[in-house]
Design goal:
Layout lengths: L36 H23 L3 H10 L5 E5 L2 E3 L7 E3 L11 H16 L4 E3 L7 H6 L2 E4 L5 H6 L5 E3 L7 E3 L6 E2 L12 E10 L4 E8 L2 H12 L1 H4 L14 E10 L2 E12 L1
Parallel strand pairs: 1-4, 1-5, 5-10
Antiparallel strand pairs: 2-3, 6-7, 7-8, 9-10, 9-11, 11-12
Helix pairs in contact: 3-6
């Protein structure tokens, strides 16, 4: 008996419909970006975490930031005031502190190196500053601008303004640091050793001066070694961190530090803290 042909109406239908082509298939097709979405998300998360870390790191308050914060906050440029010298035949060293009437003052190499440390720190923090030697800096200048005094016995303003301080440089020819509260306490370079082997002592201070009614930072040593060590101290976080062992609130107050630096063959060791006064 012949088999009747199967018509279209009799074609078996699949149990699961296959997707159709055309516009309707867009609703069922996986978007092309879905394949890389997880990787892209991980990348974005990593980048965000990296930027967050860098932001926190850039805004972290190191001891150097805390020490210089009042200076950086000044509306007027800071005057960096290095000591100034002129040649003289009347002194054993052949040099004497420059006066306002001297035409060609100069700074020593040690003072210049210390100046460079401060300038580099200011430049990193975008702090506006003026470099002006002590021989041309006036009291009016210091009343209008915060000032950073560099050096002791070549900087006339160090001797004039240190009356606000507990630890002070004794006048020439003593060349020592003494405690104004306990005058019997002194620091001086040992005279029985060659100059390039003598331990040196210096002062770092940040205070509001009664004379100028403005902020003053003092960076100075009895000799050149301590002046350089004092500049390193105030521009290096691991050195300024030593203040945290002495006082927990030094950052918000006037602070003064007596430093000692070991000298071997004319080269400096790391500065160490001899005394701290906070008020």
């Amino acid at each position: 008996m012949p088999v009747a042909p199967v018509t279209d109406q009799q074609t078996p239908q699949p149990l699961i419909d296959e997707p159709t082509t055309g516009a309707a298939s867009a609703w069922f097709r996986t978007p092309s970006w879905m394949g890389w979405k997880p990787a892209a998300a991980l990348t974005l998360i990593a980048l965000a975490a990296g930027f967050a870390f860098l932001f926190r790191a850039s805004n972290r308050k190191t001891s150097v930031n805390l020490f210089w914060q009042p200076v950086h906050a000044s509306l007027n440029p800071v005057i960096i005031c290095p000591g100034a010298l002129v040649r003289s035949a009347d002194t054993p060293s052949g040099m004497v502190m420059a006066k306002r009437t001297d035409d060609y003052p100069f700074t020593s190499i040690a003072t210049t190196v210390s100046l460079a440390d401060v300038v580099r720190s200011f430049s990193m923090n975008q702090t506006k500053f003026i470099v002006q030697p002590a021989s041309t800096t006036t009291l009016a200048d210091m009343r209008e601008h915060p000032v950073v005094l560099i050096a002791a016995y070549s900087n006339e303003w160090t001797g004039r303004i240190q009356n606000d301080l507990r630890y002070r440089f004794a006048p020439e020819p003593a060349r020592q640091i003494y405690d104004a509260v306990k005058p019997s306490t002194t620091w001086m370079r040992p005279a029985n050793l060659p100059l390039n082997e003598e331990d040196d002592f210096g002062i770092v201070a940040r205070f509001h001066s009664k004379l100028t009614d403005n902020l003053v930072v003092l960076i100075a040593g009895i000799g050149k070694n301590a002046t350089q060590a004092a500049a390193q101290f105030v521009t290096t976080p691991r050195y300024l961190d030593l203040l945290n062992l002495q006082s927990k609130d030094w950052a918000s107050k006037n602070v003064e530090v007596v430093l000692k630096v070991k000298v071997i063959d004319g080269k400096n060791g790391a500065p160490t803290v001899e005394a701290v006064f906070v008020w």
